[in-house]
Amino acid sequence: MALKLNHQTEAQFMERFKARYESADKMEQARLSAWLSTAIKVGDVKTADISTTFGLDVVNATAFISKIEEVATALAIVKDRRSGNSISHCKRGIT
Fold first, then answer.
1. What is the pLDDT of residues 45-64, one digit of tens each?
2. How much is the pLDDT for 87?
3. Cα–Cα distance measured from residue 45 to residue 4, given in angstroms and rounded to the nearest whole number
4. Which pTM does this prediction carry?
5. Contacts by 70-77 with C-beta closer than 8 Å and gap 24+?
6. With CB atoms 3.0 to 4.6 Å apart as the test, which of 30, 39, 47, 86 could cross-link to 75 if both were Cys?
7. Taking a C-beta distance cutoff of 8 angstroms, is the pair 82, 38 a contact?
8. How many CA atoms within 13 Å lie on the side-chain side of 66?
């Protein structure tokens, strides 16, 4: 993991992230999923970190990461549509 943390270890951070994720409502989980997806893509969080933190084997950790990425993508689409940047709205003539 390559997170730059000053006041906690990476393991402590991931445990706090897990607790927040598990207690969050759907919208907060989507925002946390987006953050985690980005952290995975840039290499700050690895599959092994997810596996250890969430108590998953590699197969289930990979499936969890896929779910995280799907939720992050869905959130990005919703944000894009709310901001009016969606090309699909223009093509359908919806204002």
1. 999 999 999 999 999 999 99
2. 54
3. 12
4. 0.76
5. 71/29, 71/30, 71/33, 71/34, 71/37, 72/30, 72/33, 72/34, 72/36, 72/37, 72/38, 74/30, 75/30, 75/31, 75/33, 75/34, 76/34
6. 30
7. no
8. 6
